[in-house]
Write a structure and sequence with these properties.
mainly alpha; ABC transporter involved in vitamin B12 uptake, BtuC; two-stranded antiparallel ribbon; 4 strands; 76% helix
Length: 291
């Protein structure tokens, strides 16, 4: 029983991390139709700069962690907004060019990160409580999993509230339905779309800082490795569905944890097989819109 509880809760924690990355992907594609393969770069640079700030403040304190999370989110938002403004804005409805540009940016950014921070992982120090465990039904759960779950839930609620109850959220949803009509009303929908990229980048940058807590280090490739699972989550949940991404994040992570424990470390294979099954049986994903 304790093993099942451990795998479930740690799966929820890993799923929360996947969601922080996949939420930006799902939001950007669902509202703007852009497949952004450079999304992992927003995560990585947010993690690196966030921990650079934390290291200079008071490494290992809660204040340093809060500063790292805030910095990671801000940096991720700025880089994402700049990417949309300088690169993506001219490529809407040109999907092949979008893929080529974002893949190229992702590859170039990894080389840049390695040139600045080196190829070896940079190990991080977090508050001591996050490195400890708490007992639930006989299972010793790492405390950092609880933090991941709480932050992911807050991000999900914040994005939903923003889209439903703010002026810019209304503009974004209206611009998706009929961009020409919104523009004719004198509203600059391009600014709203840049904001969508910024929100996705902020979630990724925040996720980068939390990923470094989960793994204990940050490296130039941490964003790329998480991006793979984020795309799987986005496809299984349904392209453009934020709720689908949240559900799929948990399902994928829990499946991965159970397969790794009971099937000899075959978690990644199980996830890929689940993706294949969804593509064959329900191509639009769990909550994706019908074609």
């Amino acid at each position: 029983m304790s093993t099942i509880v451990l795998l479930l809760i740690t799966g929820f924690g890993l799923g929360a991390l996947y969601f922080l990355v996949a939420s930006g992907l799902s939001l950007i594609y669902g509202l703007m139709g852009v497949l952004n393969f450079a999304h992992g770069s927003f995560l990585t640079i947010g993690a690196f700069i966030g921990w650079e700030v934390a290291r200079r403040l008071s490494d290992g304190s809660w204040w340093a962690l809060a500063a790292a999370m805030l910095t990671g989110a801000v940096v991720g938002a700025i880089v994402a907004a700049a990417t949309e403004f300088f690169l993506i804005r001219r490529l809407y409805n040109r999907h092949i060019e979008q893929v080529l540009v974002t893949v190229g940016l992702a590859l170039a950014s990894v080389a840049l990160f390695e040139g600045i921070w080196g190829t070896d992982p940079t190990y991080v120090t977090s508050p001591s409580w996050l490195g400890q465990t708490s007992e639930i039904l006989g299972a010793r759960i790492p405390n950092n999993r609880f933090m991941l779950i709480v932050v992911a839930m807050l991000v999900l609620v914040a994005i939903v509230l923003f889209l439903k109850f703010t002026r810019y959220g209304l503009i974004i949803r209206a611009g998706v339905e009929n961009r020409l009509m919104v523009t004719a009303l004198g509203i600059d929908v391009r600014r709203a779309f840049t904001l969508v990229f910024a929100i996705g980048g902020a979630a990724a940058g925040l996720g980068g800082v939390l990923a470094s807590i989960y793994y204990g280090y940050v490296s130039a490739h941490i964003g790329g490795s998480l991006l793979i699972f984020a795309f799987i989550v986005t496809v299984i949940g349904g392209l453009g569905s934020l709720a689908g991404a949240a559900i799929a994040s948990v399902l994928v992570a829990v499946l991965q944890q159970f397969a790794n424990f009971y099937l000899g470390g075959t978690g990644d294979l199980a996830v890929v097989l689940a993706l294949a099954a969804v593509l064959l049986l329900r191509p639009r994903g769990l909550l994706g819109a019908k074609a």
